[in-house]
TrEMBL record:
SMART domains: PKS_KR. Residues 6-185 form the Ketoreductase domain. Belongs to the short-chain dehydrogenases/reductases (SDR) family. The gene is fabG. This is 3-oxoacyl-[acyl-carrier-protein] reductase FabG. Pfam families: adh_short_C2.
């Protein structure tokens, strides 16, 4: 068990990649706190996750609310005694072309996907600095590396995450805190499953492996980067995309 007795917070942990990551971390022996917006969804997810381990708790928080963020960090420490890993997985999309995008669409995506990561990391890093160890992992995207049609706000946020990852790795390395990002390609989440078959096939064709990734593929990469096996890896944006990026 590569994460035995480590405590991890996973934002956006009720569904998709966040949920798959919670399962992986529990199987690897970690204590896990999932953070999401809806209390009912959290309770449902926690109940299901107890199938894998009893070391799972949930906390309702908006990652853009600084006070609630700080309370969530304190909750994890009170439950399990430390905070070793933060996975900034929570995110939203509100797509539109530049000439049609509303200011509110821009603000909401930047607020959750960029400011939320900043607030969670700032609060977590303060605790990790005290214990002189920690791992921070951010959810980027391949679109943050090469852009995407109709996603100015999302691409800006993910590009910003890549930059913050490299900056934080420089700032926090002296405290034995590693900071990395994962840039997934097309992943078979519930949202993708609902798309027309033609669109899904197009996604497959863009991959050198001619397939779409599974949430478990991203979860496995998070588990590696969170573990001692990656002790000398920091400041990296790891593409997990089936060869989608050049």
């Amino acid at each position: 068990m590569k994460l035995l007795n480590k405590t991890a917070i996973i934002t956006g942990g009720c569904k998709g990649i966040g949920y798959a990551t919670a399962i992986k971390f529990l199987k690897e022996g970690a204590n896990v706190v999932i953070i999401d917006l809806d209390q009912e969804e959290i309770e449902h997810a926690v109940t299901n996750l107890r199938e894998y381990s009893e070391r799972i708790e949930g906390f309702a928080a908006d990652v853009t609310d600084k006070k609630r963020v700080e309370t969530s960090i304190q909750f994890a420490i009170e439950q399990f005694g430390s905070l070793d890993i933060l996975i900034n997985n929570a995110g939203i999309v509100q797509d539109a072309q530049l000439l049609k995008m509303e200011e509110d669409q821009w603000d909401k995506v930047i607020d959750v996907n960029l400011k939320g990561v900043f607030l969670m990391t700032q609060s977590a890093a303060l605790r990790m600095k005290e214990q002189k160890s920690g791992v921070i992992l951010n959810a980027s995207s391949v679109v943050g590396l090469y852009g995407n049609f109709g996603q100015s706000n999302y691409v800006a946020a993910k590009s910003g995450i890549n930059g913050m990852t490299k900056t934080w790795a420089r700032e926090l390395g002296r405290y034995n805190i590693r900071v990395n990002s994962i840039a997934p390609g097309f992943v078979l989440t519930d949202m993708v499953k609902k798309m027309p078959e033609k669109v899904v096939n197009m996604m497959k064709e863009k991959s050198l492996l001619n397939e779409i990734g599974k949430p478990e593929d991203i979860a496995n990469a998070y588990a590696f980067l969170a573990s001692e096996e990656a002790r000398f890896v920091t400041g990296t944006v790891l593409s997990v995309d089936g060869g989608l990026t050049p």
